[in-house]
Specification:
single chain, mainly beta, 5-stranded mixed sheet, 11 strands
């Protein structure tokens, strides 16, 4: 799969100091943190030096917190064990928000816009009814 890197899952920084940056997951674990020696350096003072780890396995992508001070959050829930990632997941590390995009099963685009079924509460805009014309004054 390495020869088709565009098919590898992608993490995009959707919020925080490095907004717009992205990186592809690989078969080898990648450590995310603020230390210059980690695989993915994120310039956020609220991250631990070695904050979290992501990797791609045959059964999908996984995320693990590395005993960080502020924790690793997946879809607004703090994780404490290895957790599988699904397309569209939002990961928060410090004040940095990452969006997970898996082109193999994508229901979202790389920045998190959903391609899922249309919302039922959304109605097309209808024209306003025409107002009754005022009666002519005599």
């Amino acid at each position: 799969m390495e020869e088709r890197s565009e098919l590898l899952p992608l993490l995009t920084v959707a919020g925080g100091p490095m907004r717009g940056a992205s990186f592809r997951l690989g078969l080898h674990p990648q450590v995310i943190g603020r230390a210059p020696t980690v695989d993915v350096v994120v310039h956020d003072p609220h991250l631990s030096r070695r904050h979290a780890e992501v990797w791609l396995a045959p059964d999908g992508a996984s995320l693990r917190d590395l005993d960080s001070t502020n924790g690793t959050w997946l879809n607004d829930q703090r994780i404490s064990a290895v957790t599988r990632l699904a397309d569209g997941d939002v990961i928060r590390l410090g004040r940095t928000e990452l969006r997970f995009f898996d082109p193999g099963v994508a229901l979202t685009d790389p920045v998190g816009i959903s391609f899922g079924p249309p919302r039922r509460d959304h109605r097309p805009t209808l024209p306003l009814p025409l107002a009754t014309p005022p009666t002519a004054l005599r």
